[in-house]
Amino acid sequence: MKTKIQEIRNNSITNMTKKCFQIAAILLLSFTSTQAQDKKAKDLLNEVTTKIKSYDNIVIDFKYSLNNAKENINQDSKGNVTMKGNQYVLNFMGVTKIFDGQKTYTINPEDEEVTISKVNEKDDNAITPSKMLTFFNSGYKYNMDIVQNIKGRKIQYIKLVPTSGKDQRKEILLGIDVQTKHIYNLIETGKNGTKTTLTVNSFKTNQPLSKNQFTFVASKYPKYYINKLD
């Protein structure tokens, strides 16, 4: 039976994975929605898109913060994610998640367990780069927001607001470095007051990756329990 701490950690890892791919989604999408949008915001996002599309892979080191004043929750964690096409490796809160394009391998050293599961693209809770790449295609209005000077960097924020009343998110703020056209951070505010922030500490592209970068090698975990869900 999962402990409460394990539950919180697993939820944080799931939310963190979504944030990473929300960034990937914004980076790689062409914002061509027919909804009325702010032209300046659309132009800036398209500038980012054009630049990012030339990259073979993206490696991000990040800080993840979860805050809810009402519930007295303040949680900070660091991690990194490597993304290429429809594959990724995420290291966060001591857990490694590998997605090879078909299956997700969740490696938990604390429990000495590897959980293997197939990904169903039709599942609303499934997290894959290809699915997240369509995440912002519809259902959001966006416009230019504030500009901040952060450690000498000019950060332009774009606000995305869900159009569905059923969405539990109030808004998403995407911070873009005006000079580099790279993502600086993503701030998501829920209707319940919870705020999650992903801040990019390091944004690298076209890195030399191992040919087995996104391959799970079972022999590395001889003492681990292999839990196959499918």
Automatic annotation (TrEMBL):
Range of residues in the leader sequence: 1-36
Lineage top rank: taxon: Bacteria
Keywords for this protein: Lipoprotein, Signal
Listed name of the protein: Outer membrane lipoprotein-sorting protein
Protein's organism: Flavobacterium cutihirudinis
